[in-house]
């Protein structure tokens, strides 16, 4: 037999019938990249040395150099370049001779993993052009001197995160010539909470410093009557921690192409942080015997645990909830996802997610441990990670619960989250992932029931206030404790709180057992609401309409909640709460107006002026719930742009920007920006104030350079008003 062929056959990775390529889920593996990539037959006289050749590449990767400074990655103890996505960085390339743009052609290639593919985002060719688009891959030459060029490279705000290999490719008529593999030019790309286009964008610098850059934290434990605290070292910047965190994603077998999505990363990480069913990082133990391992309370931080796991590839013993949460926090912050550690006092562990903890009593009134599967934890720690939720309706972005402690399986694995905190608060537990479980952790009623001899169940007591009494986290910029209970739930005993519970039960209907047939939706009443179209700075009204199709008269306890949300759907603050009782006459419709005054929302207003309203109503006579939510955006005034003079390349023209202040206040410290690639460079101008109803006019003279269709873009920005834009298409004639 011909041995050469059979050994070659062995090498090929096993394929299955469903994939053209084996799974690509290791950031560590590499493929061979040819240094000479011929287009066909290479003629005999071809000598690569005759063409442009890369002699050296400088990455400006030291902590004090520009890249790590601008990208807030100077704290990482890692010699390689680390940048955040969607933000430009610089490199320098030295060639063997001066670069000639007319004839020389080169590009950059970023590769990840064993099977780089362009459509999977694991092979990224970056072409050198004239314009950098924010948040999209591109490169642009900023300096040329002797044999060197300086490049600015922009990465995509959605690109996958991890470690990329960098090659420079030069085009020649007969082949592509590449630099050889050089680990010194490897580039880590991380999430970017500083970039508005990134799914993890956070707008407050103090919060970014706390939730991304702070490498120590506080764990609150003990119980409600006796709160204790301890420090925890996250150490996300320590040596090898970044590599260890990337290894966790390899271990979880997360496809490389999915690694740009914080929702996916959180979901797989919540499974791999614990050792159940995937040999993950930490083995949990709650039985007080910690043989052959470290007691959970002995750990002081995450670094030892992650490094031990990274080297041994075996679960580290032992952890309990705050250890899972501490390590998870390190993982999230290390990759650039804003994260914080949360403690929930009196946390329900609801075994069958029916929003109630069933404690079964025996004849003597003692808890029957055989029947009782649910439990209450003195406290439970989990994490919140900050991100948009494009997979959910508007309003559910922002903080998401993720929990690495193994409690119950979710889709067949021990994991939990991400679940929107906002959805949990309002009882909208129908939205993925694991919201009913988390809702139950903070909201369950405890129901004590006893079995009669004849098999009927008698409910003895219902305790509605014990679970989730207090939910806390560390304050921003300090070591104090801040209570965030109201992020998760309405005030105990309030109408809104019961309403949210009943909404949750309605959405969790599939979880109910058949004997709970009392929860049938109210079919004879419809509720809807309309938000009046409004211009920023004006009052407007929300009209709630009920249609009672029955012959009974009802009263509805109605609650309207108005939240200011980021354009990504992440809520910032609740600016309007309004409860009222609505009388619903038989066979008739009734409408109720709630007026929203500009003074109620202007102070908290965010850039895109979008609101999100929840309306929930309980029909008091039947206990049925009607719930509805809608997002709405205010109309923001725009800038007007005009041109004056001939639009001819090489001739002077004028651009005029006009803006009329529509607000009932003077705008102060206003910045205008105007740019038009090929027409004029970005120009900024500051205006001290624009009184109400007055019009500002700004004229800019410029000489357009390139003929063709161009776009002028202007923006206005001040504290009271953001996201004011104007644009104009102009056709520049050839001279």
From TrEMBL:
Domain of life of the organism encoding this protein:
Eukaryota
Its organism's taxonomic lineage begins at: Eukaryota, Metazoa, Chordata, Craniata, Vertebrata
According to the UniProt record, what class of enzyme is this?
transferase
Localization = Cytoplasm; Secreted
Q: Which family does it belong to?
A: Belongs to the transglutaminase superfamily. Transglutaminase family.
Q: Where is the active site?
A: 321, 380, 403
Listed under catalytic activity are: L-glutaminyl-[protein] + L-lysyl-[protein] = [protein]-L-lysyl-N(6)-5-L-glutamyl-[protein] + NH4(+)
Mind telling me which InterPro entries this protein's record contains? Ig-like_fold, Ig_E-set, Papain-like_cys_pep_sf, Transglutaminase, Transglutaminase-like, Transglutaminase-like_sf, Transglutaminase_animal, Transglutaminase_AS
Give the cofactor note: Binds 1 Ca(2+) ion per subunit.
Q: Which PROSITE patterns does the entry mention?
A: TRANSGLUTAMINASES (PS00547)
Q: Where is this region: Disordered?
A: 1-36
Alphabetized Gene3D superfamilies for the sequence? Immunoglobulins, Transglutaminase-like
Q: Which residues does Ca(2+) bind?
A: 443, 445, 492, 497
**What cofactors does this protein use?**
Ca(2+)
Q: How the protein assembles, per its UniProt entry?
A: Tetramer of two A chains (F13A1) and two B (F13B) chains.
Please give the function described in this protein's UniProt entry.
Factor XIII is activated by thrombin and calcium ion to a transglutaminase that catalyzes the formation of gamma-glutamyl-epsilon-lysine cross-links between fibrin chains, thus stabilizing the fibrin clot. Also cross-link alpha-2-plasmin inhibitor, or fibronectin, to the alpha chains of fibrin.
Source species: Tyrannus savana (Fork-tailed flycatcher)
Name of the gene this protein is made from: F13a1
The Enzyme Commission number assigned here is: 2.3.2.13
GO cellular component annotations of the record: cytoplasm; extracellular region
Q: Which PANTHER family match?
A: COAGULATION FACTOR XIII A CHAIN, PROTEIN-GLUTAMINE GAMMA-GLUTAMYLTRANSFERASE
User: What UniProt keywords apply to this chain's record, in alphabetical order?
Assistant: Acetylation, Acyltransferase, Blood coagulation, Calcium, Cytoplasm, Hemostasis, Metal-binding, Secreted, Transferase, Zymogen
Q: What is this protein called?
A: Coagulation factor XIII A chain
Name the SUPFAM superfamilies on file: Cysteine proteinases, E set domains, Transglutaminase, two C-terminal domains
Q: What range(s) does the Transglutaminase-like domain occupy?
A: 313-406
Task: Output one GO MF annotation.
Answer: metal ion binding
């Amino acid at each position: 037999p011909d041995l050469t062929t059979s050994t070659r056959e062995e090498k090929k990775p096993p394929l299955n019938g469903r994939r053209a390529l084996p799974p690509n889920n290791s950031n560590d593996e590499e493929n061979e990249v040819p240094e000479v990539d011929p287009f066909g037959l290479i003629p005999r006289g071809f000598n690569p040395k005759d063409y442009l050749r890369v002699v050296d590449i400088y990455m400006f990767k030291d902590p004090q150099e520009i890249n790590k400074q601008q990208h807030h990655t100077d704290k990482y103890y890692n010699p390689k370049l680390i940048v955040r996505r969607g933000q430009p960085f610089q490199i320098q390339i030295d060639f063997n001779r001066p670069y000639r743009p007319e004839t020389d052609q080169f590009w950059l290639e970023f590769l990840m993993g064993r099977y780089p593919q362009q459509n999977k985002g694991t092979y990224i060719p970056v072409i050198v052009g004239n314009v950098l688009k924010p948040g999209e891959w591109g490169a642009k030459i900023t300096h040329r001197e002797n044999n060197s060029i300086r490049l600015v490279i922009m990465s995509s705000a959605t690109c996958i995160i991890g470690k990329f290999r960098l090659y420079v490719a030069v085009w020649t008529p007969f082949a592509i010539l590449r630099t050889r593999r050089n680990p010194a030019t490897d580039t880590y790309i991380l999430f970017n909470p500083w970039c508005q286009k990134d799914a993890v964008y956070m707008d407050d610098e103090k919060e970014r410093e706390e939730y991304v850059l702070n490498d120590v934290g506080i764990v609150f434990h003990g119980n409600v009557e006796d709160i204790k605290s301890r420090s925890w070292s996250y150490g996300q910047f320590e040596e090898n921690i970044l590599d260890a965190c990337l290894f966790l994603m390899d271990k979880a077998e997360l496809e490389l192409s999915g690694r740009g999505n914080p929702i996916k990363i959180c979901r797989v990480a919540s499974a791999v942080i614990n050792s159940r069913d995937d040999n993950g990082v930490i083995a949990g133990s709650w039985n007080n015997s910690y043989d052959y391992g470290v007691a959970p309370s002995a750990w002081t931080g995450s670094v030892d645990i992650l490094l031990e796991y990274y080297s041994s590839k075996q679960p580290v013993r032992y952890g309990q909830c705050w250890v899972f949460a501490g390590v998870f926090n390190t993982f999230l912050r290390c990759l650039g996802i804003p994260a914080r550690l949360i403690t929930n006092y009196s946390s329900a562990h609801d075994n069958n997610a029916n929003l109630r903890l069933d404690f079964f009593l025996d004849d003597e009134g003692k808890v029957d441990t055989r029947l009782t599967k649910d439990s209450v934890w003195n406290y439970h720690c989990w994490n919140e990670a900050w991100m948009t939720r494009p997979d959910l309706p508007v309003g559910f972005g922002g903080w998401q619960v993720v929990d690495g402690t193994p409690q119950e399986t979710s889709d067949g694995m021990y994991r939990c989250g991400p679940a929107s905190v906002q959805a949990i608060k309002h009882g909208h537990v129908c939205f993925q992932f694991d919201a009913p479980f988390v809702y139950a952790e903070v909201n369950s009623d405890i129901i004590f029931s006893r079995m009669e001899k004849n098999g009927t169940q008698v409910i003895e007591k219902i305790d509605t206030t014990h679970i989730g009494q207090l939910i806390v986290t560390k304050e921003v910029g300090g070591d104090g404790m801040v209570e965030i209970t109201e992020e998760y739930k309405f005030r105990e005993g309030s109408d809104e709180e019961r309403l949210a519970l009943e909404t949750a039960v309605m959405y969790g209907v599939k979880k109910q057992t058949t004997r709970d047939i009392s929860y049938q939706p109210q079919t004879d009443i419809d509720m809807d609401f309309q938000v009046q179209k409004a211009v920023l700075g004006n009052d407007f009204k929300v009209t709630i309409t009920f249609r009672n199709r029955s012959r009974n008269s009802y009263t509805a306890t109605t609650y309207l909640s108005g939240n200011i949300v980021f354009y990504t759907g992440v809520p910032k603050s609740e600016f309007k709460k309004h409860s009222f009782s609505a009388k619903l006459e038989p066979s008739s419709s009734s409408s109720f107006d709630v007026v929203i005054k500009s003074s109620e929302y202007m102070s908290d207003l965010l850039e895109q002026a979008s609101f999100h309203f929840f309306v929930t109503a309980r029909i008091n006579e039947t206990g049925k719930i009607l719930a509805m939510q809608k997002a709405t955006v205010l109309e923001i005034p725009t800038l007007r742009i005009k041109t004056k003079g001939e639009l001819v390349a090489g001739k002077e023209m004028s651009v005029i920007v006009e803006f009329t202040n529509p607000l009932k206040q003077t705008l102060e410290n206003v910045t205008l920006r105007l740019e038009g690639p090929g027409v004029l460079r970005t120009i900024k101008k500051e205006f001290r104030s624009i009184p109400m109803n007055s019009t500002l006019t700004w004229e800019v003279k410029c000489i357009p350079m390139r003929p063709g269709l161009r776009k002028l873009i202007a923006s206005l920005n001040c504290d009271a008003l953001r996201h004011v834009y104007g644009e104009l298409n102009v056709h520049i004639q050839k001279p």
